[in-house]
Model the fold of this input.
Amino acid sequence: MTNPSEIPAVATRLRAASPTWAAASAGARADVLLAWREALCARREPIVKALIADTGRKRISESEFDGALRRIDYWVERAPRLLEAASSGESATAPSVRYEHRLHPFGVVGIISPWNVPLLLSVIDALPALFAGCAVMLKPSEVTPRFAEPLNASVQAVGDLARVFAIVEGDGSVGEAMVDVADAVCFTGSTGTGRKVAMRAAARLIPAFLELGGKDPLIVLEDADMKRAVTAALRGSVLNTGQACQSIERVYVHETLYEPFVEALVADARRVKTSHGGEDGAHLGPFIDSRQAETVTAHLDDACAHGAVQHCGAVTQVADGAWCSPVVLTGVNHEMRIMREETFGPVIPVMPFASDTEAVRLANDSNYGLSAAVIGDEAHAMSIARQIHAGAVSVNDTGLTTMVSDVEKDSFNESGLGASRMGDRGLLRFLRKQSLLVQQGEALPIDAFREDVH
Ligand code: NDP
Done:
């Protein structure tokens, strides 16, 4: 555990090492990160075991690890091209001025990550920052702390990386101390905490890249394929026990499909099993943080008290944790917490709509704008998708942002701030562009600026 008072010293150590790291070639940095890949692979078992112990998920923990390796490969391939892209030329507005661009990485980037996907959301920003030439201080969530130790061992195994990559452990007070010393901050977490981080960063005038909560809508149009819609709605809502920022949390279905859609969804939802210790054939692990069960229960209680009907699923609390089988709700409206606040559980509230205009209005009636989905005839669905206020809209599926790393997206509304973490800007946001401007003509004399009255 790191004491917040130790954070300035960690930053000083990283800052001292960062000029050498920044000055290294992109290829040299890639070599170091490939050495880290090997060190990670050598510790696959303890890292995955720690993730399973903290999250109760086997398959997702394994895929997090594999996803981290794929991220290294992705940036090994992309980073050198992006870092060589510095340009030079002559100014169009002042032809006698030649310019040359240089890219300057931030010195120390502070990265604060959440508990719902502990490893992947820790490396997703750390890797491009390191590839860009920044030093990185990472704080994972104290809710899922076990993987930090084997992860740190993998970093320590690569001397050149250990000088510029520090993993600190602790709660929000450590996160606050990091914002007070970093040169830029990447924060993934709730909108409430993100706001605090943004205000603290603003006081120091440092950039804060914020990836925050969501309340993603799915619109099922009248020309949708029913089977596709039900399959995508269920997976998009309940995967990871709903503990994903891009979970579908509201479903709007055209009134002509509404009843058969609900019937089919309930039937499929009933087949989804909760997983206790990774037994075969089960899908949903426990809530990672049992406080999450309280939030889900509070949202369900509020909805049911105001007239919602719970067709299936329930939160079950047992001695070693809390689980939730998929809940399908109807009779919901936008006065209810379940339609306005982030639930972060496998709950699928379904509402009918009568027209495209109504569907778009309902989908956009939210403080959030992380992502969304539309299912229907492709041209029709695209025309609706273009009207949705969200950073990414999946068409004819849900959660496509989890499959693409190379496509840029921003967050709308209170779901985030700052350049895309996906695609090229995921790395370029860590570089400041410096212009060296050379006057090739005569220096302008002061007389050129005489305030003569003509
Ligand atoms: P929190 O906001 O509670 O915490 C996120 C991180 O911030 C944790 O490491 C936490 O530490 C730390 N922290 C807490 N208080 C402060 C503070 N005052 N200053 C600095 N850091 C602080 O989020 P959760 O961990 O609960 O994560 C779930 C949330 O993350 C959901 O809202 C989800 O939608 C969002 N999320 C967004 C994603 C996106 O890409 N947009 C992706 C994944 C999740 P500790 O936990 O140790 O207290």
User: Anything to note?
Assistant: The chain has a mean pLDDT of 96. The longest helix spans residues 59-83. The longest strand covers residues 97-105. The radius of gyration is 25 Å.
